[in-house]
Amino acid sequence: MSQVITDKNGVKRYLITLSVNGDAHTVLVKGNAILVNVLREELNLTGTKKGCELGDCGSCTVLLDGKPVDSCMILAVEADGREITTIEGVAANGKLDIIQESMINHAAVQCGYCTPGMVLSAKALLTKNPHPSEVEVREAIAGNLCRCTGYVHIVEAVLAASRGEIAPADQH
For 23, which of 45, 118, 133, 152 is 20 to 30 Å away at the CA? Predict the structure, then answer.
């Protein structure tokens, strides 16, 4: 539960604790601070991208209690005490996650701006449904806009990861 602190000018701030990628961070925020800004500016987790700031593009996607959300639409105080996963928390022990490896090997990354959000949306899908259909993959990433790839390689990468593969079939 956040603690309310009023400064000498009467401005209320909230002392919140965010569990980000398994680490607890206590930060002092204004009531209108949005999560993407706190992640980027206070915690220096710049893998979470800022795009439209309207919840339309998905570039700021993070996992909040395991579910993909647009962090530009979440107040930081709403995330107090909850588990947040950013792209920086997907790799483990210096090893990329299978979805990250698959995205690279399937040429699903071009400019890279949408990639963190795509990876997190795909990771949430594969956690919930380890063997999705192509339609389910497309539905899961529908909130993440990509202007470079045309989505074909992204969908192929997610489906390959669901089969435990990281390289395209023609490269085996």
Answer: 118
| The pLDDT of residue 1 is above 80 | no
With CA atoms as reference, report the closest residue to 90 among 134, 136, 54, 126: 126
pLDDT value, residue 124: 98
**Looking at the domain covering 3-88, what would its CATH class be?**
alpha beta
Selecting from 1.10.150.120, 3.40.50.150, 3.40.50.1450, 2.40.50.840, what CATH number does the domain 98-171 have?
Answer: 1.10.150.120
Which tokens sit at 164? 């435990």
Single pTM value for the model: 0.92
Burial 34-59 (b: 16+ CB within 10 A, else e): bbbbbbbeebebebbbbbeeeeebbb
Report which residue type is found at 141. I
In our burial notation (b when 16+ CB lie closer than 10 A, e otherwise), range 96-105 reads: ebbbbbbbeb
Question: How crowded is residue 149: how many other Cβ atoms within 10 Å of its Cβ?
Answer: 20
58: three-class secondary structure by DSSP = coil
Domain boundaries, the chain: 3-88, 98-171
